[in-house]
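Shipment paperwork, digital attachment
Item: protein structure file
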Amino acid sequence: MTPTSEEELSEIIAGSNGPLRIKGGGTRPIGKTDGADLSLAGMSGITLYEPGALTIVAKAGTPVAEIEAKLAKENQRLAFEPMDHRALLGTKGEPTIGGVVSANVSGPRRISVGACRDFMLGIQMVDGAGNIVKNGGRVMKNVTGYDLVKLMTGAYGTLGVLTEVSMKVLPDVAAQAMLVLDGLDDTQAVAAMSAALSSPYEVTGVAHDPQKAKTLFRLEGFPDSIAYRAEALTKHLAKFGAAETIDDTENVKMAWADIRDVRGFAGQDGDVWRISAKPSDTPGLVAKVGAKAVQYDWGGGLIWALTDTGRDIRGSLGEFDGHATLIRGDAVPTFHPEPARLASISAGLREKFDPRGILNPGLMN
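Attachment content:
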């Protein structure tokens, strides 16, 4: 089923006698859920773009590439840097903005500008009863009651089917550069990344590759500003070693696209886990996992781990302040079990918005 309007989508959902599997571009088939395929590909297009107001509105099935191309003409961008899962998951198709919002997909720049959720202004959706719902608008404002904009961002289509999203965008940057430290172990790298993030030098990306023993720090802005901050940051990090500066913007962009999309794991056998935790805890968690390869992002707050197929690493991790999500693999549940109180709240919300339990059933349970 591929509706082309909200009204058609509403009729499909209201008249459905069984579960529905919500699809965008088909590039991120994460988790198990049964049901008839309901594709948003027929609801595509940018409906409003106001560069002066830093606002864009697009239908849920709009390819991210189309939005990025439109923004680039006005020297603007999606600052939260959404990941493209195709290389990692071996999928085809085109990532859509509805899929990005539904999963709150956010890249390395999250540490400096925030997540996808922080750029959301408004949404339109159809809930599990077939009701067309609108929430938010085109400016940031406080709300009372359910903040559906934030609630739907990261709900994976389990509360409703997004049909249109309104987002804040930001100006693009003139140049990029990065500093590279060699030879640090995981604990040293997390300390260096924390030192960079707590500095005044406006670092917009910090990552560590243990396999190559390289720790990377990204700087963005005007060339003169980058040159000054790179020199100052090099001195700030001197106790961790002598940093190399790479100031070729295109090479830096490619390097961080590799980090964003975890391309180092593409084509390698095994499951892929995404572990979110306190940076100070992550070296110890990595030691418990026994992964074949790992990648640190977000200053150490995000771990990508490549493991043997079929292993549930949650038992090895034990109790920790964070969660582990299975991004590639299907032998164990995708999402980390919620604490009892949070699980009760989640169940209550699903009962409210999808009383028949037909939207991506079981996906986040």
